[in-house]
Specification:
Elements (H helix, E strand, L loop, with lengths): L2 H18 L1 H12 L4 H12 L5 H12 L8 H12 L3 H14 L3 H4 L7
Helix pairs in contact: 1-2, 1-3, 1-4, 2-3, 4-6
Length: 117
């Protein structure tokens, strides 16, 4: 399996993995640097997604995604984000971030599986 396909898989799953487990995210990043095979990366991703995400891991992933918008979001969007992140309302926060990704045309995030829930 070629490295390009593995890179595409990781790009699509990166924030999804981060949402579930920062430790797995770090391990997969390292595995990618070491040119791990598609099968290895896919297995690590599957393992991460089988975990129960913690509030910390979910918050961290959302904060990373918010980084794409914090300079372009309007005042209302910033207030809404702050309310959602403080109340840890991830059921509403993910669709909110998806809406921002659509509005501001952030293709990288639109391709991310975490926002396709």
């Amino acid at each position: 399996m070629d490295q390009k396909k593995t890179e595409i898989l990781w790009r699509e799953e990166k924030y999804n993995v981060m949402f579930y487990s920062q430790n797995h995210y770090n391990a997969i990043r390292q595995a990618m640097k070491n040119k791990a095979s598609y099968e290895e990366i896919s297995a690590l991703i599957k393992q991460a997604l089988s975990l129960t995400p913690t509030e910390g891991s979910m918050r961290n992933a959302c904060q990373h995604m918010w980084g794409y918008f914090k300079k372009v979001a309007d005042e209302e969007e910033k207030i809404q984000y702050e309310q959602l992140i403080q109340t840890t309302n991830f059921r509403e926060l993910l669709p909110f971030l998806r809406g921002l990704a659509e509005k501001y045309e952030v293709t990288y995030l639109l391709e991310s599986r975490v926002l396709k829930r």
